[in-house]
Amino acid sequence: MTAVRHAPGRGAVIRFATAFAVRLGGVLLVIWGAATAGFIALRLIPGDPVDVMLGVHARVGEAVREQIRAEWGLDQPPLVQYVLYLGRLVRGDLGESYQLRKSVAEIIGQQALPTLQLTALALLFALVLALGAALLARGQRSKRIVSLVELFVISSPTFWIGLVLLAVFSFQLGWFPVTATQGFASLVLPALTLALPVAGIISQVLRQGLDAAELQPFSTTARARGVSRAGLVLRHSLRHAAADSLTLTGYLVGSLLGGAVLVETVFARQGLGGVAIRAIIGRDIPVVLGIIVGAAIVFAVVNLLVDLTYRQLDPRLRIAVREASV
Amino acid sequence: MTSMVTAVSPPRRPRRPSIVRHIPPLGVVAAVIVLGVVLLAAIAPWILTGQSPLQTDATAALHAPSAAHLFGTDQSGRDVLSRVIYGARYSLLVGLGATLLALLAGLVIGIGAGLAPRSVDGVLSRVIDVLMAFPEFLFALLVIAVIGPGEVSIVIAVALAAVPAYARVARVQTMVVSRAGYVRAASSLGVRPLAVIVRHIIPNTLGPLLVMATIGVGTAIVSAAGLSFLGLGPQPPTPEWGVILSEGRNFLATAWWIAVFPGLAITTTVIAISTVGRFLRSRSEGRSS
Fold this sequence. Notes:
- The structure holds 2 protein chains of 2 kinds.
- By secondary structure, chain A is mainly α.
- Chain A has 14 helices and no strands.
- The termini of chain A are close together.
- Chain B has helices at about 1-5, 20, 25-45, 45-50, 80-115, 120-135, 135-145, 150-180, 180-190, 195-230, 240-250, 255-289.
- Chain B is built from 12 helices and no strands.
- The interface between A and B is large, with 59 and 50 residues.
């Protein structure tokens, strides 16, 4: 491929549509890959799923076991099971939990809301904290302090930060409720816990981006035009730095979801974290597979969106990517 | 190489004057001392504490930090300080073991992809890119879901989760080295491919990977502690940092010290490791640029 100049009009639309289609194909490929890898890996596990369904101590005759196998399609050859599984997946059917005897989609759907609330508020906190830290740290001394705080929150285990916040603000000061009852107040500490390490990473990248922007020719031009230092940061550098930070989004969504598992355990909250842990410990294969596929869908879609946004935000990249992918 | 573009590449800091560059900053010296203490705790914990990490004492349950028990005691009257000291062993072992495994696997996959025909490399790099998009902790959790909980599982899970990052760097480095003039010269002079890999590609790839691995040990320790906090690894009363934290969670209202000190130990260790790692990285960048 050679570098193509941008022609306005139909050409650009077609190019965008093609890029979109290619990436959508990639998304489907990733989801299929995750589903297949999960299926194969979970088939390799020694042990009989019927044992999981009945519990360890159940004493049941072989006839009943056979009946259960037939009912769940476990007596079919693996390849047939795989095809049936993919077929159900396409229709949005994730199967049924061995332990809870409920559809996996239902279980995930029921528990998704608390996790979603937690991660959404955490993302908001993280962005506000990171932006605040990056804008505050423009002097030598403040830079040093901010970078120390960043190092601390990035290096600390998320769940420990949660325990410390819980000990200080709930048990000692009594500012926030200890139990995770409904309501905004019980959401603040978990969201803050989840937000801190993420904020540390965003702030690091933002600050590097702002520093780099200061060295760009457009900064000199803007300053020469009489734009104030603060105006330069707010109007020009921040946009430049945001493009860098945007590449992190996919990673951050993952960190938030992974961290949510820990934070939900620390604060004894309802959510997907608990579902995941119980399924892993109880070897509830359909639920585990459902979570793997669900995670893959979230990631693939988020990465797709980031990819497309990124190209809109930084026009230079539309050409740069072409040249780099030669 | 699209992977180079999507990767976050922070701009390099301006170099310090050359005289200052050769003296490690104070923070690095402190970090090395901290790591020395952690290493001592891992190898010979009995030098640092006279108390057993498992000895229970019903009369001394949930005592606040005092001269006799600097970090206080837990619900069974066990000395928290000695539990934290003995815990260093598990964390370092998991951190180093998992990182080493990941480094080796990443090196093999990365060099393989870097030297393989374009089609094979294309598929491998796509897979690596996709796996890289998954954060390490979530990936490790999924691996545990497949292989089941346990102490060994944690090492494998944390290692597997880190492999893609090493593989990606090893691949890029291999491609750079294998296109270099001296490697082409060696090949055209009839040096066997295997000898080229052993003599040129591995030594040149290992440097950046080792610097990455230094920081990786810290990440691995945090991930492993998280997994055992969730109850997926060693079980109580093992004096592992994640396990102690998980026990301490139940006594936060009355005995904050059980949960605070092990976490502080993890954080201090990880900060020390990443300080040293960043120092090594800044030096190697200074050299290569």
